[in-house]
Structure formats: C-alpha cells, structure tokens
Amino acid sequence: MKRNPTLIILMVIMLVNALSYGTIIPLLYPYAARFGINPLGLSLLFASFSLAQLLATPIIGRLSDKYGRKPLLLLCLAGTAVSLALFASATSALMLFVSRILDGITGGNISVAQAVLADTTEGKDRAQAFGLLGAAFGFGFLFGPALGGLLSQISLSAPFWFAAALALGGTLAGTFMLKETLDKSKRQPAKQPFFSLHGLTEALTNPLTGIILVISFLFMTALNAWIIGFQTFSNDILKLPARDIGLMFATFGFISIVIQGWGIRVLLNKFKHKKSILVGSLLFSILIVAPTFFIHSFVPFFVLVLLFGITSTPMNPVITGLLSERTKAEDQGGILGINQSIVSFGQIVGPLIAGTIATTSVNAVFPVAAAIMVAALVATKWLYIPKVMPVNL
C-alpha cells in the first residue's frame, strides 16, 4: 500500500478516540451507581447511547457528503469531548443520560473517518487501510481500560476528565493536521433515504443473507446483554475495584487485537465461515452461563473473560465476512449498512433485556444471554449454502 499521510493522521485521531472510550467503559456502572443508577438504569444508559448513534450516524454520513468530511469529523470529536466533560461533572442521573445521548448523536466519527479513507485510497488498498484504522482503535481499547483503572485510584470522575481531554486533543489534532478530502465539486446530498424498510425486508427474505442478518442480531443482543451482566456481576456480586475491572477489559482488548490480526485467518482456513459460527456460538453459549454456577472470585472470573474473549472476538468479523461474500459488488454498501443497523438494534435490545432481568437477579442475566446464543446456533444450522456464490464480488 502506498504511503498515505491522511491514514496516519486518522490512525492517531482514532487511537486517541479509542483511548477515551476504553478509559470510561469499565467504570460506567461504578460511577453511575453513585447517582442511584441500578442495573436497569445502566442498561438504559447503554441503550440511549446506541439509539442516538443509530439515528444520527446515517445523517452525519449524508451531511459529510454535502458539507465535507473534516467539519463533520471535528464536530463529532468535539461533541464527544463535551459529553465526557458533562459526564465527569454530573450532579444528577439526568445529566448522565444527557451526556450519553449527546455522545451518541456525535458518535459518527468512525463512519466519517472511513469515508475519508474511501476518498483517499484506491480500491486495492482500501481493505488494508480499514484494517489499520481498526487496529488503531483496538490498541486504544487495549490501553484505555488499564488507564481508567489506574486513574480511578485518584477519583471515579478522574478517568472521565482524562477521556474528555483526550477527545479534545483528537479534535485539535484533526483541526491542524487533517486536510479536507472531499472536493467541493463532488459534494451533493445523497438521493437515497436514510433508512429503507423495503431494503431491510428484501435482505431478510433473501436466502443468501436473511439468516445471517438474524444471526448477527442475536449475537449482538447476547454480547451486549453479557456486557451488562459483566458490569453488574463485577460490581454487585464480586465487589471488584475499578482497577481489576479495567484490567479485565484491557485483557479483552489485547485478545481482540491478536484474534483480529491473526486468529481469524487461521480459523477460517481450518473451519470456513459456517462451521466457525457454529463452533463460536456453541462455546459462547457454554462460557456465558458460567458465572451463574461456577464463578465466585476474581481469578476464575478473569480466566473466564480470557476464554470468552477468544471465543466471541471472531464472531462479528466472520459473520460480516460471510455476509459480504454472499452479496454482489454493487449491493455491498447497502447490505452492510443494513447489517450495521441490525447490530445497533442488538446493542439496544441486549442491554434492555439484561438490565430488566438484573434488577431481580444478576445471575439470571447469563442463562438468558446463553439462550439467545443457542437461538443463533439453531439459526446457523439452517444457514443456506449455495452451490454458486453471487457474481461480481
């Protein structure tokens, strides 16, 4: 791939952005609990962010087509900085929700960054550029939780102030280092609607893609239910300090980098897509229920998180890869956009299910999440294997 200065700048911005995100995620529940937020309230915090992001991201993408990439990317980064500062200085639960919604509304920076790369890379280099951007985000998520855990020793609000400063730094870096990549002659409002119900229905009824989209939704629902279960179990059952929670998230981030950089290729060479999803769904279902029956202290829980990371990390890339493999070249953008919407719905539904259950029993979250993954396992068994894949891939 040719040297691309824009890619280097974007990687720096995404690294800073991921550091800010990774710093706060493990600490959301302990911090929010100070304002009377219970497990259901935590799930609503997560869901409010995901819903705002779901609604705003396509609009931000279209606005970047009309007004240029740089102003929208800077707006998103600045919005994240403001939302984190608001969260750090919150005096009520309402301020926490306002902060998360604002962060969700301005949370389209990754999609705008991808558009910048699409403007500045050729087709043969684009996949590698996207991979490098993802790696930068992964490294940020590796070190962010560890930083958050250390800073929490000062105060629970310190990691959020630090994350806000990082986001502000990313905004300044973009202001002075990033050039506009979309020429004014190419700027125009997109003619397609932000969301097409017809396109969703068509994709779900297509034998090549329908079941895969269902599997994608079930996986993201179960994964995000587990995230709520993880936070409430760590905080309410095991009574772990923020430092230990940050360490586990950092370990998860490290596994993610290794698996995405090397493990997925090995997995697909050995099992192919369908068998990989079957094996992943089965192991996911078994591991996800373990805290209910076998975990009573930090060390076994840490080992479980390690195994869970190895099992769950390949699932989303494998599902997305299979979906892309079964889609014609001219339909790639549309079908992957539909999948992203379905993923976002899973990020809303999963926390709501888990939060509702956790108000009665934290331990009950894990069997329910496992049942959702069993449904994904059954759906994978129904997966249609065509003799001939779509042409023009």
From TrEMBL:
Q: Which residues cross the membrane?
A: 7-29, 41-60, 72-95, 101-118, 130-154, 160-178, 211-233, 245-264, 276-295, 301-323, 335-358, 364-384
The alphabetized UniProt keywords are: Membrane, Transmembrane, Transmembrane helix, Transport
**Species whose genome carries this gene:** Candidatus Gottesmanbacteria bacterium GW2011_GWA1_43_11
Check the record and name the Pfam families matching this protein. Answer: MFS_1 (PF07690)
Q: What is this protein called?
A: Major facilitator superfamily transporter
What lineage is this protein's organism placed in?
Bacteria, Candidatus Gottesmaniibacteriota
Coiled coil region boundaries:
none
Location(s) in or outside the cell: Membrane
Does the record's keyword annotation contain Transmembrane helix? yes
Membrane topology annotation: Multi-pass membrane protein
Question: Which intervals hold domain Major facilitator superfamily (MFS) profile?
Answer: 6-388
UniProt GO cellular component terms:
membrane
Which InterPro entries is this protein grouped with?
MFS (IPR011701), MFS_dom (IPR020846), MFS_trans_sf (IPR036259), Tet-R_TetA/multi-R_MdtG-like (IPR001958)
> A Gene Ontology MF term for this entry?
transmembrane transporter activity
